[in-house]
Amino acid sequence: RRGVMKHTQETIVSTAMGRRSFLKGSAAAVVAAGLGSNLAGSDFAFAEEGQTTSKGETVNPGVCRGGCGSGCQMNVHVRDGKIVKTSRRQQTDPNITRVCNRGLTHALRVYGEDRLKHPMKRVGERGEGKWEQMSWDEALATISDKWKEVAEKYGPDSNAFLCGSGNITPDAQHGKRLAAAMGATTLDAAQDRVFYAAFPPIVGMGKGPGGGGRNDLKNAKNIFIWGYNPAESESQTFHYLIRARAEHGARIICIDPTYTTTASKADLFVPICPGTDGALALAMANVLVNEGLADEAFMATDTVAPLLVKKSDGKYLRLSDLGKAAAGTSDDKPVARGKDGSIGTLAEITDPALKGSFGIEGIEVTTAYDLLLERVAEWTPEKASEICNIPVDTIKELAHIVKDGPNSINIGLGLDHVTNGMATFSAILSMGMIAGQYGQPGNSAKGTWRGETAIGWMPYGLANPKGAPGSTVMYSPALLNCMESKKYGDKDINIKTLYIWNHNLFGTQVGGNRWREFFEGVELLVVTDVVMTSTASYADIVLPACHYFECESATGDDTRYVFYNAKSAEPLYESKSDFEIFKMLFEKMDLLQYDFKNLDELFGAVFNNPAAQKIDLTWDRLKKEGSVLTFEPDKRVMGEDATYMTPTGRLQFYQESIPLDTDYGQKIDFMKERLPYWEPPMEAWKENPLAKKYPICFTSERNKYKVHTQYTRVPWLLEFENEPYIAVNPADCEARGIADGDYVRMFNDRGTCTLLARFNNGVRPGMAVIDHGWDLDQFVDGFYCDLLGYNVTPVVANSYYFDTLIEIEKATI
Ligand SMILES: Nc1nc2c(c(=O)[nH]1)N[C@H]1C(S)=C(S)[C@@H](COP(=O)(O)OP(=O)(O)OC[C@H]3O[C@@H](n4cnc5c(=O)[nH]c(N)nc54)[C@H](O)[C@@H]3O)O[C@H]1N2
Ligand SMILES: Nc1nc2c(c(=O)[nH]1)N[C@H]1C(S)=C(S)[C@@H](COP(=O)(O)OP(=O)(O)OC[C@H]3O[C@@H](n4cnc5c(=O)[nH]c(N)nc54)[C@H](O)[C@@H]3O)O[C@H]1N2
Ligand code: SF4
Ligand SMILES: [Mo]
């Protein structure tokens, strides 16, 4: 049924293959691609925009804008109307004048064999691959007629939309506005939700002008890389880290179960048992407190530590409790107790007590700091050592390092992808507070970059036009858990049509087979993509989107620039930009009153805000100049003035109210969630009875040859790794009679997948790690995403990819 990729002697990844033959293979691929003369030995000379080079090429600005998030601008070289290559583009900041290996292969994506050419409708079973070409007109009429019929019969929210990270620009996400105009449901893939849910209430995160950001890393003495693998996942940030080490002597500490590329560049690698980082952070805090190293002065000035918490309900004691303000007003501030016994707001009390329980006007209260210390006291290094599988001395050493700042503590998505992620983020961030590691140069870290004037995701205001009915949001992992009750909180789940774009659901979401069940109730599944993905192949109607460089756009992301993307070539075949496709759908739905007239109007609205106006950033200027540097890096860091963008204006290790990420009817244990804690992951834990049947914890690693499932069929990149594999510790393989390079079947109750196994001593026994991003038809059989667990926690209904148990066995193929 599926194309089997053969494991031949020529396979680059086969262990027998030497470097010489690898290079030979590369040259052959260049010639086969018919682009040899342009690309072999790519000249990296900087070409000027609009300039015709000696080769008769015109050079335009283009922006790579998939889920990697770096948003690199590059030169797009055009000859005879064809995009022949990409090269790095000179920016005023040499740190940003960079493109990665993937960015250099875009010409092969534009002319890839997997491009969708025409609108098509399914004629066989879903996923069978039998299609009939249809006209755009017929496709749009079929879709809009169905939407109208469903809205009439079941209500507008029975139509649903789901957008991923394939193209992170406001224009590509135009469908969000259509969803709001139609009153349709928005499904949120809920990826990286812990990361986004944790920072705002705990340390505050916001964008504004100014800020040191990545440029501040050079000021750090130690750089913690915690569940983060930027050597593969954020190469454009990794060079700042490596330069901080090489040129400024920063020490890199990497905490990861796997010996990753990033770990190989670290000064200290701490191999941790997966899912136990919260215990480690709490034990580090325990050492700091017990050795008298807690920065109490910092806790008093910068955190909620002195605030008094009522024993009755966990809320702060406020002026209203003392009859000094009306409850619920902005005057109703929380209060602290001075060491002299006076009670007042933090602005009034200059020398607050950090510890103690008091009865104030008959109300029993304790300081927030005391509540934190209670949680920390439980976590002796000895106890954490057993759970984390890290020596007690290492835990103590880590505590001493974190105190010896300035430290940059970078938490990656490895910790977001485990069910105890929220409490783990809270534990690490709170431990950083006890160590006083905020507000000083060198303290900037991932998630606390401040000041990037980013454009990327469609701004909320634009996605919700005035007067439109708006869209109800449901998180997909929560939805999968509510399929039996058919209730998402107080809302009925009754989705009859789904429009997916910019997203390869089967290739990137948890619970693949659960989704297939869900789709049984969906009468029309539309997928718009550039290429035929596993998700597109399951659709009832597929629509062809054009490649990034075939339409005009702009994006900014993490670079401090806003970059213009010119249209460098005509959209191939019948493909169109998402903006254009949604525009036609607005028209068919008679909702043009909510639409933008054209792209100029959309970007006019994107730049219609005070931050852009202050620096004269307009769409016209951007088109003219090609890129605009929005601000120079400066020395300011988040929290330098001891204020943070949280509800209290302070660092919050304590949450007075728990912000609900999404309400699907879950019950929350508020007192538990207010402070950091550690508990095992819901599934991938050795004491889970399921671990007897499925003893291996299955995680993934970002891969430098892909961004999720993008680039996965680019011939040059397949030269480096041409088929999926799991990296496994030889001990686990030997116990199962598996040799290096054997095919194995991995499986659990949710799915099965057959692929290569490669021995890797850098993988902990009891784990299997896949290089994430392969699509379904690239496997011998089955699909790894189908195995992924979809448990959710009450606080964050995230996709917890790494909370997955499997077993592996030798496969015969
Ligand atoms: N096992 C495992 N799974 C994971 C993760 C993991 O760590 N492990 N990580 C997860 C995370 S953090 C994320 S953010 C998700 C990302 O998940 P997705 O957002 O689904 O990522 P992609 O696979 O890049 O899918 C994007 C799709 O958009 C298409 N596309 C590109 N440009 C355009 C365009 O202009 N228009 C349209 N219509 N389509 C376009 C691409 O061809 C591609 O098929 O993956 C998640 N999946
Ligand atoms: N090449 C490439 N780059 C990408 C992407 C891509 O698909 N490909 N995707 C982009 C996106 S959307 C995202 S969200 C980012 C994410 O990029 P990162 O934040 O780097 O996240 P991951 O690579 O998922 O995981 C990071 C590390 O966490 C480790 N880990 C797993 N479990 C645990 C644990 O329990 N404890 C600890 N301490 N570590 C653990 C893994 O071994 C891995 O080395 O990358 C972006 N960049
Ligand atoms: S894949 Fe990411 S790092 Fe590479 S060129 Fe594109 S945006 Fe830049
Ligand atoms: Mo992500």
Question: Would you write up a description of this structure?
Answer:
A hairpin with a 2-residue loop joins strand 28 and strand 29. It is globular and about 80 Å long. The protein is built from 28 helices and 32 strands. With 813 residues, it is α/β, with parallel strands linked by helices. Among the domains are: 19-110, no CATH class; 196-434, Dimethylsulfoxide Reductase, domain 2 (3-Layer(aba) Sandwich). Bound molecules: ligand MGD (2 copies), iron/sulfur cluster (SF4) and molybdenum atom (MO). The site of one ligand MGD has 33 residues, from helix 19 and strand 21.
Task: Break the fold down into its secondary structure elements and pairings.
Layout: H1 19-32, H2 36-39, E1 58-63, E2 73-79, E3 82-88, H3 106-110, E4 120-122, E5 131-133, H4 136-154, E6 159-163, H5 175-182, E7 185-188, H6 193-202, E8 222-226, H7 230-233, H8 235-248, E9 251-255, H9 261-264, E10 268-270, H10 277-290, H11 296-302, E11 308-310, E12 336-337, E13 343-344, E14 357-360, E15 363-367, H12 368-377, H13 381-388, H14 392-403, E16 407-411, H15 413-416, H16 421-434, H17 460-463, E17 472-475, H18 476-481, E18 487-488, E19 491-492, E20 497-501, H19 505-508, H20 512-519, E21 524-529, E22 541-544, E23 553-555, E24 561-565, H21 578-588, H22 599-606, H23 610-614, H24 619-625, E25 627-629, H25 670-673, H26 690-693, E26 696-701, H27 715-718, E27 725-728, H28 730-734, E28 743-748, E29 751-759, E30 767-771, E31 781-782, E32 805-810
Parallel strand pairs: 6-7, 6-20, 7-17, 8-9, 8-16, 9-10, 20-21, 21-22, 26-30, 27-29
Antiparallel strand pairs: 1-2, 2-3, 4-5, 4-22, 11-15, 12-13, 14-15, 18-19, 23-24, 24-25, 26-32, 27-30, 28-29, 28-32, 29-31
Bound molecules: ligand MGD (2 copies), iron/sulfur cluster and molybdenum atom (MO).
Residues 64, 68, 70-72, 99-100, 102-103, 235-236, 707 line the site of iron/sulfur cluster.
